[in-house]
Amino acid sequence: MSNQDWLERSRQAVWHPCTQMKQHETLPIVPIARAEGMRLTDFDGNTYLDGISSWWVNLFGHGEPRIRAAIEQQLASLEHVMLAGFTHRPVVELSERLSALTGLGHAFYASDGASATEIALKMSFHFWKNAGRPQKSRFVCLENSYHGETMGALGVTDVPLFSDTYAPLRRAARVAPSPDARQAGAGMGAEDVALAAAEKLEALFAQEADTLAAIIVEPLVQGAAGMAFHHPRYLREVRLLCDRYDIHLIADEIAVGFGRTGTLFAHEQAGIRPDFLCLSKGITGGFLPLSCVLTRDAIYQRFYHDDVSRGFLHSHSYTGNALACSAALAVLDIFENDRILEKNRATAERFSAALAAVRTHPSVRHFRHLGMIWAFDVETPRTDFARAFFAEMLAAGCLLRPIGNTVYFMPPYCIADAEMEQFAAATLHALDKLGCAGASAAGPALP
Ligand SMILES: *Cc1c(COP(=O)(O)O)cnc(C)c1O
Q1: Do 331 and 390 fall into the same domain?
Q2: Cα–Cα 20 to 30 A to 82, which of 25, 40, 255, 319?
């Protein structure tokens, strides 16, 4: 079977996510036969370097042998058992280890990031209800936030393309200004933007704290907004405001957790602890769906009662799946055994050096880097930039999927020097073709 056969059958039988299917009349689907390390291989033998970790889930490359072995070993004894009334080794060990790493406890599991968002929102509201304050039932999210596509998660997602269509179904959250560092004017830094955003947040809290249960934030990087970075000071200010006004802080680290920003969890860089921590994506190294919500013990205790309805009666059939938990345990082992955070610092230095010419390309604006994320905005007259860039890169054997005019790299941590060079060369070539070379005077200054 060739690529052509599979893409035709996929077009007939599969409804692809986040896609206007009609665009696949011209933009081909890429059927993947196998993958190893950085490399995806299609049915015709073409290979593509996975520059975005397959939608940000893959940490150590495809087919990582130790994660595969952990799943195989678990498969030999227990594939799954319901978690209501039952428990098993991988879920207990994983919960203990996540608790030791975060200082938060009682891990609650689901399978996708959006479900973790739903759980954190429901838990926060239910906590206040159990505390005799049921009027605290509304949420705050940030401008351009993204927390998933299910109905509750969409309520705290401020991306019009995803949420506007469903406006009549959505219970919209209050939207606070984004601390996006790109807003810094002349003589301002990222920290000034953070403080200004926090000041506006305080005004909102001061007015509406009685009805607010929680604020949900993507710490340090708003991913789907187009990799919008903010200063850690913002998180410190939000933590202080949440304490002052009795509002929960939900850290959605679904995208930024597990070393992506340079620390194991992004909120560590602000020296704060959230009330709820949502994890998913990298948690199994990109092998199996798993998500998790951790919370403070004082919150857990508010549910612990003789009255059944005060308990958190939420569940998913695959909650705490043993195979997924065993993959997550292997991921934590790899972080320790391979000293991944330390190794990533050296890898990041080499990739930044490889991207030096991209950084200074005349169509590039706001080049930014944090941990294992690189992003920049492209000045171009093309309205179809994202798709055209995607196609150019694919032809050069690289998978990158810009968000609007923002190009970003979120590679698996195993990226090698030759692969960095291939990305840099292909990106420069695509920018020369699609960017607006020579327009540098018109745009804002490079940071
Ligand atoms: C991807 C993502 C989600 C949603 O996770 P899914 O597994 O796609 O449901 C939520 N929040 C953030 C920050 C994400 O990046």
Answers
A1: no
A2: 255
Q: Which of 280, 290, 292 for a ligand 1 pocket mutation test, highest count of atoms within 8 Å of Cβ? A: 280
CA terminus-to-terminus distance, the chain: 49
Pair (71, 55) in one structural domain: no
What distance in Å separates the CA atoms of residue 248 and residue 143, rounded to the nearest whole number?
Answer: 18
Looking at residue 358, its amino acid is V
Give residue 8's pLDDT band: very low, low, confident or very high (50, 70, 90).
Answer: very high
Nearest CA to ligand 1 atom 15: 255
197, with CB counted inside 10 A (0-12, 13-18, 19+), is buried
CA distance 45 to 34: 10
Q: Are 331 and 285 in contact (CB under 8 A)?
A: yes
Residues 407-428: tens digit of each pLDDT: 999 999 999 999 999 999 999 9
Residue-wise pLDDT for 255-281, tens only, equals: 999 999 999 999 999 999 999 999 999
- The closest residue, in CA terms, to atom 12 on ligand 1 is 147
Q: What is the CATH number of the domain that holds 405?
A: 3.90.1150.10
